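Protocol step 4 of 6: structure prediction from sequence.
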Amino acid sequence: MDLRARISAATKQAMKDRAAQRLSTLRLINATIKDRDIAARGEGNDQGVSDSDLLAILAKMVKQRRESASTYEEGGRLDLAEAELAEIEVIEEFLPKPLSDEEISGAVDAAMNEVGASSIRDMGRVMGVLKGRYQGQMDFGAVGSVIKERLSAAG
């Protein structure tokens, strides 16, 4: 079952279960996807966004909610932080399992070997390979520093 169908099925099930909080998050996901589909059609892509784009959208939504939860916690608004964390749980159901540190290290090594990365100038190409294969499975902000460190040591 593709990602859109899974999200749609989960939305229908949340309606049946009368799970208001879950349904709200799923509707938010659907609205975001619909917005991106409309934007893609405006750019001449009649198919809408692909599954890899959907994974990027979901990963971005998780990142935004983590930042919001952190801000709410710092401000002493634990109720709002908990609501953000609950939304993260729902969104993460549709993302692939995150890679472990060892798997990330292996993926970085493989990507560096594939593109023949030898200096910091090759970082963009390495990131491009990783984003193409592991969208939603790793934090590219954290991975960027790992790549930079390895390329600095190599070059």
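Step 5 (inspection) to follow. Residues 81 and 119 are 41 Å apart (CA to CA).
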